[in-house]
Specification:
- The chain folds into three domains: 182 residues, no CATH class; 64 residues, no CATH class; 170 residues, no CATH class.
- It has a six-stranded antiparallel sheet, with helices on one face.
- The protein is an alpha+beta fold.
- The protein is globular, with a radius of gyration of 27 Å.
- A hairpin with a 7-residue loop joins β4 and β5.
- It comes from Achromobacter aloeverae.
- Keywords: Membrane, Transmembrane, Transmembrane helix.
- It holds the Pfam family PepSY_TM.
- This is PepSY domain-containing protein.
Length: 546
């Protein structure tokens, strides 16, 4: 109800909904947006986090070297898999499954090879950017089911915030072209609106498709009804489609054990895919008469292609007949398209960078919205001279969630290069370090004024990110100037991006430290958590020196 007793209009109601839908899970959404954005370049990040692999350069003999290495590493394995180098991943990753090993990841052993020599690389244990990818929709330290349910709830709140935000701001597209600096709340609202409109289609589509990806978990009743409660039968049928039964042509000569016409197979597959390139190949029963080779193409540019069409050969190069995939319902094709749109499987380098930048815009949109909640309430706090506990809590959470996550991510990269290679559970210690840093950053604002907390955490993140190229060069990685000279863009691109983000963070530190807009992030002193007056020389209610 309005103060005059009349009911609120639609826009006023949507304003309330937009504010609290974004605030209640805003800190979770910020972490999801940022880690999801990093997932678009997870191959590049993972390559950087494996310094020995950065010196790997592929040539025409790379595939043969990988098979020769597997003959030494796992001569009796029942299956070999070779992931070939790409512009995003310079080294060769091989894996094998020993006879009788359990299915899934538990029964698989892996190694990384130098693409130019075939030698096994001593790569330190790390989860790389796969940690960010999984954190994006499963979080950490909870069951997969619980994490995905929480991600689905957060995505639903995000969708509500997007729709209600469009309804609330009737001049949102007009105000996209308006930015008024040094105007406190007005400036932050302009920035929030501009970031929202700039990536509005991206934000809406990614949020909606994210919910679609989780729909069988969030709304399982249709699946339960179709399969009489036997939900796993649906997933088993999908696996059967992905693993077809192969048949050797009747007129083909009998197979011979020990023969592997790999060059002919790769050449024919490349011709069938029109020069698209080969992502990986799998050899089942290597060295035996019934050995087969399965090839997967490199990422294409089709949003509807999932999974990608595979080719199958006998080890002697004879194409194998695989039953064609049955015709799928239009709804299944739509669902597959939505998966590709969300994950960006079809995106080439240019489009992937657009996705990445749009994700950064979405991350900043959430961050500015959280800060704006505090800024809008500063005038009332000026009048009363008191900071309510809820306001101070939001201030602390903002610093810990936004600045703290930036510090934790930068620290995760440093731990990756500094922890001893022989450390037991090394990958786990990287993750523990990530959360340890984040926890310290969450507690840090309780001990500092609001402005000091922002300045110190953003400064720490900026320094750590800017020095990543030097860290990499000093710990066995490829120096930046060499990665640029040799066209190793997966490494150079990551380091240049980290430095660019560091410059932006330094600019934010400069704005927080001084100027008319400093009060926006300065907030109020710790009255809600510790009743005392600011000391001389300490920022006061609006961050102004007393």
């Amino acid at each position: 109800m309005r103060p005059d007793g009349k009911p609120e209009g639609l826009r006023q109601s949507m304003s309330w909904l937009h504010t609290y839908a974004g605030l209640l899970l805003g800190w979770v959404l910020f972490a999801m947006f940022l880690t999801g954005t990093l997932s678009y370049v997870r191959d590049e990040i993972t390559a950087w986090m494996k310094p020995p692999a950065q010196h790997s350069f592929a040539d025409a003999q790379t595939a043969d070297r990988a098979v020769a290495a597997l003959r030494k590493l796992a001569p009796d394995a029942e299956q070999w898999t070779v992931n070939l180098p790409t512009v995003r991943q310079p080294a060769v990753e091989v894996s094998w499954r020993a006879q009788g090993a359990p299915q899934g990841r538990r029964g698989r052993e892996t190694a990384m090879l130098d693409a130019g020599t075939g030698e096994v690389l001593r790569v330190p244990e790390t989860r790389g950017a796969d940690f960010f990818y999984r954190f994006h929709f499963e979080f950490y330290g909870m069951s997969v089911y619980s994490g995905r349910i929480l991600a689905g709830i957060a995505a639903f709140f995000m969708l509500v915030a997007i729709i209600s935000g469009v309804i609330t701001h009737k001049k949102i597209f007009t105000e996209f072209f308006t930015f008024r600096p040094r105007k406190g709340q007005r400036s932050w609202l302009d920035a929030h609106n501009a970031l929202a409109v700039l990536g509005l289609p991206f934000h809406f589509i990614l949020t909606f498709t994210g919910l679609l990806l989780l729909m069988f978990m969030l709304l399982p009743w249709g699946l339960d009804g179709a399969y009489d409660g036997q939900r796993m039968q649906f997933y088993q049928e999908r696996r059967v489609l992905l693993e077809p039964r192969l048949e050797r042509p009747a007129d083909a000569p009998p197979p011979v054990a020990g023969v592997l016409a790999l060059d002919d197979i790769l050449r024919d597959a490349g011709r069938q895919w029109g020069g698209r390139g080969i992502d990986s190949f799998m050899i089942r029963h290597p060295g035996k008469a019934d050995s087969t080779v399965e090839l997967r193409p490199a990422t294409g540019d089709s949003m509807t292609e999932y999974p990608a069409r595979r080719l199958y050969y006998a080890a002697d190069g004879t194409p194998m007949d695989a039953p064609s995939e049955p015709a799928l319902a239009w709804s299944t094709n739509v669902y597959r398209t939505m998966i590709n749109v969300h994950i960006g499987r079809f995106a080439g380098p240019a489009l992937r960078w657009i996705f990445f930048l749009s994700g950064i815009a979405g991350t900043l949109m959430v961050a500015t919205g959280l800060v704006l909640w505090v800024v809008k309430r500063l005038p009332e706090r000026r009048k009363t001279g008191v900071t309510p506990f809820s306001h101070r809590l939001v201030e602390v959470l903002n610093v810990g969630a936004i600045g703290g996550l930036a510090v934790a991510i930068a620290g995760y990269f440093w731990l990756n290069h500094l922890l001893p290679a022989a450390l037991r559970d090394r990958a786990l210690w990287e993750i523990r370090g990530f959360f340890g840093l984040w926890l310290l950053c969450a507690l840090h604002p309780l001990l500092r004024t609001h402005r000091q907390a922002w300045v110190e955490q953003l400064s720490a993140a900026a320094v750590l990110l800017f020095l990543l190229p030097a860290l990499n060069a000093l710990t066995g990685g490829l120096p930046l100037w060499r990665s640029l000279a040799r066209g190793q863009w997966s490494i150079a691109g990551f380091e240049l991006s980290a430095m660019a983000v560091a410059v932006l963070l330094a600019f934010a530190v400069r704005k927080v430290r001084g100027g008319a807009d400093a009060a926006v992030l300065a907030g109020a002193p710790r009255k809600a958590l510790a009743e005392r007056r600011p000391r001389a020389g300490e920022p006061g209610e609006m961050g102004v020196q007393q």
